[in-house]
Amino acid sequence: MFSGRHVSKPGIDFYYGKKIEVTSASPLVVHGDGEIVGETPIQVTVHPDTLQVLQGS
User: Fold this and answer.
1) How distant, in Å, are the alpha carbons of 12, 17, 22, 51 from that of 54?
2) Residue 57 pLDDT greater than 70, yes or no
3) CA 29 to CA 2: how far, in whole Å?
4) N or C: which end of the chain has fewer CB within 10 A?
5) Looking at the whole model, is its pTM more than 0.90?
6) How many CA atoms lie within 13 A of 14 on its CB side?
């Protein structure tokens, strides 16, 4: 997954947005960055400049 090749696999949809709503006919578990973040329906909002990433040498 770290190479990004998973986004071209069948059944994978890739979207960009500041606010995304995910719905389904029946509840599904939603994962964000490998962690369970809830289940559908869910709204996800990106907040700019709120995540600090540190890079080691």
Assistant:
1) 29, 24, 30, 10
2) no
3) 21
4) C
5) no
6) 7
